[in-house]
Amino acid sequence: MMSLLISVLVPYGPGLAEYADVVLNRESDKAGVRPVIFPHWFHRVRYQCRVCHSELGFEMRAGANLVTMQDITDGQFCGACHDGEIAWSTENCDLCHSALPGTAAGIRGGHETLGPGNW
Amino acid sequence: MKIIYTHFLLYGSMLIMLVVASVIIPDNALYADPNAFNRLMKPPSERNPSPAQDGIHDPESAGVSSLQKPRQSFGALPKGKSGNYVDWVKALEGGDIAPRYDRDDPAAEPVIMDLNIVREVKGSMPNVVYPHKQHTEWLDCSNCHPAIFIPQKGANNISMASILLGEQCGVCHGKVAFPVSECRRCHSQVKQTTASMDKKASAQKEVTQ
């Protein structure tokens, strides 16, 4: 009932997500968890691009980083900050794994340029 | 009694659905007006949607309602024309935000390089001024050099076509940094083209005649 209500109530297409939100879904759907949504806007209020794209080694290309949950709990990628000290820890699965199941990986929010991230 | 009760439940919940629907659904979504003033451009009411309504978050996921709504954050920041509808350059330089240079040291400062590269543009568009300052406030040299740009003035063949394909400036602009639609932020140096000088000259002639 609730899901029917929502599917009727949400006429938005994927292009309407917030600009620069990235869906990470190399492993999630396969493993039966919701895909991950990374919000650039929220993080760039707190961090310069270089922290992730230089210091922590995230490639600047959607889908190019093979991130696993084990890497994260080992303190890499998202886990470099989501460790319970700098930011809330990985026990909050739902805050990261928040996408509709089956959402394709890539950058969202009405980007205008083509390229690797535009799947 | 049982039948009346189930009817009550059924119609009651339908009524609630209707009320909820009329509150949540923007009019233009239900009764899409074929003669709406803006047919293709997104109306302001659809910008910066909240996570539960943005089409990619799962509203049934327990965490989604805990996420911050972009508008809560952006209300305090200088407005932009597209993308996040925030002017991130002004937000940073005006001190509205203080994004960290380092993962855990809030006091670490970036090395800012103030060097403008002017790229002359063929045709009528103003020249492009590429500012190192606004970039090194966010990025390391190695984010661009040498993979995207050879660090030598004029050594890179840049074109609008490749930018729109997501290369060169288009690696970031149109994806995370302000979109390509804001032409004049890049094409910011008005030039004295021969065409516009000719026009001005002939206009002056007409005045003097």
Kindly describe this structure.
The complex is a heterodimer of chains A (119) and B (209). Chain A has 119 residues and is an alpha+beta fold. Chain A has one domain (20-112): Cytochrome C3 (Alpha-Beta Complex), CATH 3.90.10.10. Helices cover 28% and strands 8% of the residues of chain A. Chain A has helices spanning 2-9, 28-31, 40-44, 49-55, 69-73, 93-96, and strands at 21-24, 36-39, 106-107. Chain A has a three-stranded antiparallel β-sheet with strand order 2-1-3. Chain B has a domain at 79-209: Cytochrome C3. In chain B, strands 1-2 form a two-stranded antiparallel ribbon. The termini of chain B are far apart. Chain B is 32% helix and 4% strand. Chain B contains eight helices and two strands; from the N terminus they run ααααββαααα. Chain B has helices at residues 2-24, 27-30, 70-74, 88-93, 132-136, 160-164, 183-186, 194-208, and strands at residues 116-119, 128-131. Chain B is mainly α and 209 residues long. At the A-B interface, α1, α3, α4 and α6 of A face α1 and α3 of B.
Spans where pLDDT lies below 50 across 5 or more residues of chain A: 1-14
- CATH fold label of the domain at 79-209 in chain B: Cytochrome C3
Which term fits the overall shape of chain B?
A: globular
Give the tally of structural domains of chain A.
1
DSSP strand count of chain A: 3
Strand order of the largest sheet of chain B: 1-2
Secondary-structure class of chain A: alpha+beta
Task: Work out the oligomeric state of the chains in this entry.
Answer: heterodimer
Q: Strand order, biggest sheet of chain A?
A: 2-1-3
Number of helical elements of chain A: 6
Sheet having the most strands of chain A: 3 strands, antiparallel
CATH class of chain A: Alpha Beta
Order of helices and strands of chain B: HHHHEEHHHH
Number-wise, the strands of chain B total 2
Going by CATH, what is the homologous superfamily of chain A?
Cytochrome C3
Rg of chain B, Cα atoms, Å: 26 Å
Radius of gyration of chain A: 15 Å
Which segments of chain B are poorly predicted (pLDDT under 50) over 5 or more consecutive residues? 1-30
Mean of all residue-level pLDDT scores of chain B:
83
- Overall CATH architecture of the domain at 79-209 in chain B: Alpha-Beta Complex
